[in-house]
Amino acid sequence: MSEVLDKVVEIVCNQLTVNKEDVTPDSSFVEDLGADSLDTVELVMAFEEEFGLEIPDDEAENITTIKSAVDWIEKNS
Amino acid sequence: MENKKAIVTGGNRGIGKGIVLSLLEQGYFVLATSRDSTKFDVSHPNLKLANLDVCDHASVADFQKIVNDYDPDILINNAGVTKDNLFLRMTEDDWDEVIDTNLNSVFRMTKLVVKGMLKKKWGRIINISSISGSMGNPGQTNYSASKAGVDAFSRSLAKELGSRNITVNSIAPGFIQTDMTDGLIHEEITKKIPLQRVGNVEDIASLVNFLVSEESNYITGQTLVVDGGLFMK
Fold it and tell me: What is the value of pTM for the model shown?
């Protein structure tokens, strides 16, 4: 597991109150982990804070799974 | 009480000033903004002042840093203007200025505080509207449209943020004795008010005190009218 993946999973589990075991790289925040639309905005805020990044709104819309979050963060940090 | 922090726009006079004084008295920290804060004649250890023109996009964007440092729990969108004229004589500039100051600024200012409130999972946003927005008023097509817009904004945002324990409400004052209503208030109007007097800023400030407190936990998306009974739905 990459460090980024570890942190992303941790943030998602905290934010959405889900168990680590229920999360896979392909997990969709909304469809698999029960996030509502505001949760997805808050997740992006949490990623920004944790990794010291600014994720533009139009790109944030495409961050819908664990994997897409990790990919974006790795590409942009 | 833990000392919560409030931002009040247009806090230097009228209803805004009344709200600032009353929040300070209740023990809140207050950051009061106005176009020219040197005109602010109040000083208090819990009061900070800032120059801000809510219509100036660049200044509002710059203000984000101050907001982040201040980390407010409460936003009172109070800044507002009138530019009354009969519709046939109203210019598009009069229209734009009032919509921008009273409505667009609410969008701009609220943008600055919501992220912080989401993190705290607590927040209070109070928009000062007007009964003009619900009942209409001749000469105020611009003003009443802006205030009806503010009320509708409060309802939609209340629905978006309710799950995060952030409440959004409007307060709609009737005739309150301030510079803005100077010249508008006369005996004829007073006669139409069931409580037989115009309001004072304290009448509004006391509702603000309630809405920012934990006592109002279950109230959101409302327009609360404070007008001595002038307008009844």
Answer: 0.93
